[in-house]
Write a structure and sequence with these properties.
Elements (H helix, E strand, L loop, with lengths): L1 E8 L5 H13 L4 E6 L4 E8 L8 H7 L8 H4 L5 E4 L10 H16 L4 E7 L4 H6 L4 E2 L2 E5 L7 E7 L11 E6 L2
Parallel strand pairs: 4-9, 5-7
Antiparallel strand pairs: 1-3, 2-3, 5-8, 6-7, 8-9
């Protein structure tokens, strides 16, 4: 038997529950020697393989078959109405400064609710991600990137307690970017 290491990227926007789902799947794979998950969502799995398994990677194949969609913020939008806020903003392409202003307006709106802001959510590969240039927080609040969120929106999800998961969202506020 040979020892082989595999690596797969878990969807960070799925949060802790997504990491746990990925780990559950790893624990179902035979002959796993060890695994590690880092904060960027990289899951590394070390396992023994037989000669017959050479050239195949059951770990990667199994984890790629796992459905994380129900844990992503965009799945919540099917159950909770999105309250879009409109603000006057300058014409033209958004800048980081204008993004910060819009984010401040969203947090100000959230502060008037009994909930606590949980996270900003934006489209993966969209306007917000480009403006943040690799940053993971906006005004000290985590930013999650989900390909299921509309490209032109910055959303903020609110939950009842700081220990709540995004699946316990009470309100979703959003603003359209130009």
């Amino acid at each position: 038997m040979n020892l082989v290491e595999s690596e797969v990227q878990l969807p960070v926007a799925a949060g802790v529950e997504g990491f746990i789902r990925g780990i559950r799947e790893v624990l179902r794979i035979p002959r796993v020697r060890g695994f590690a998950v880092d904060m960027t969502g990289k899951l590394r799995v070390t396992r023994h393989i037989t000669e017959a398994e050479e050239g195949t990677d059951k770990v990667i194949r199994r984890l790629l078959e796992v459905n994380f969609d129900d844990l992503l913020p965009s799945s919540i939008l099917q159950h909770i109405p999105l309250e879009c806020l409109s603000y006057e903003h300058e014409e033209g392409a958004p800048t980081l400064a204008s993004l910060l202003w819009w984010a401040t307006q969203l947090l100000f709106r959230v502060d008037s609710t009994p909930d606590i802001a949980f996270a900003f959510v934006a489209h993966q590969g969209g306007t917000v991600e480009r403006l943040l240039q690799g940053r993971t927080k906006l005004l000290g609040v985590p930013v999650l990137f989900d390909p299921g969120v509309p490209n032109d929106r910055l959303l903020v999800f609110t939950v009842p307690e700081t220990t709540s998961t995004i699946q316990q969202t009470r309100h979703v506020f959003g603003i359209s970017l130009p």
